Amino acid sequence: MKSVKLEWVLGNIEAAQELCTEALKHYEDFPKLWMMRGQIEEQCEYMDKARDAYNQGLKKCPHSVPLWLLLSRLEERVGQLTRARAILEKARLKNPQCPELWLESVRLEFRAGLKNIANTLMAKALQECPNSGILWAEAVFLEARPQRKTKSVDALKKCEHDPHVLLAVAKLFWSERKITKAREWFLRTVKIEPDLGDAWALFYKFELQHGTEEQQAEVRKRCENAEPRHGDLWCAESKHVLNWQKKTGEILAQVASKIKNTF
Fold first, then answer.
1. In the predicted model, what is the mean pLDDT of the chain?
2. What architecture does CATH give domain 1-61?
């Protein structure tokens, strides 16, 4: 797998494809190989080949949530909303009580401008996964502004120590321009889960807008020491083939620059 990744990041696409094909002859139940195969095809804009790779992979690895997400996002990217929705419904049937799949279903509808459907799905999601921090955190910002505080209190009752919920509260205070409180909750979040890259990136963006140079440098330094590995926003940059040689501080700045605090 590392050989495939190396050829891919070096831009040797044909070599990467050949190695991937060879590896899959021996390890066809290894989802990451199917994911790489599909992503390489997507990068080359071969959408049909990418779709085939994800579908083949899911026959062998039906419980690989990242594979389901890649297939759904491919369909969304090519404008097939109905197909993307159906894929996620099928994924949830095969993988019940999976917060990540519910979250993607909610976000799919929200991105399509179908906020009512997103809200209905979120209610179902929280029934099936009542203690999921990622779902409660998202639920806070699905609410209209006047109701967000109430929803955040509900979220904290259910998931008091979940970093995603703590991060949602920090964002809520930030959106209300309560700077001191927002900083307190950002600090609480990165202390409880220093591996969550999204928290560091949001914290850094916050300090770029409201903090001193010293406060900005402190967040950057602490993030570099923590070397986070998780978070949707973080992994979108850190795992991108073009960023394979970038250091933590560079990834932090890159992720922060793409965050639009319109919540």
1. 97
2. Alpha Horseshoe (1.25)
